[in-house]
Amino acid sequence: MQLFTLGLNHQTAPLAIRERVAFHTERLRSALAELTRHEPVKEAAILSTCNRTEIYCALGEPEAAFEWLAGYHRVQPQELQPYLYTLPQAEAVRHAFRVASGLDSMVIGEPQILGQMKEAARVAESAGTLGTLLNKLFQRSFAVAKEVRSNTGIGTNVVSMAAAAVKLAARIFPSLADQKVLLIGAGEMIELAATHFAAQRPRTMAVANRTLDRAETLARRFGAESVELRDLPERLPEYDIVVSCTASSLPIIGKGTMERTVRARRHRPIFMVDLAVPRDIEPEVAGMDDVFLYTIDDLAATVREGIDARQSAVAQAEAIIESQVGSFLHWMKTREIVPLIRQLRESAEEARTREVERAAKMLARGEDPRVVLEALSHGLTNKLMHAPTEALSQGGEGDQSLKALVARLYRLRARE
Question: Are residues 87 and 115 in the same domain?
Answer without folding.
Answer: yes
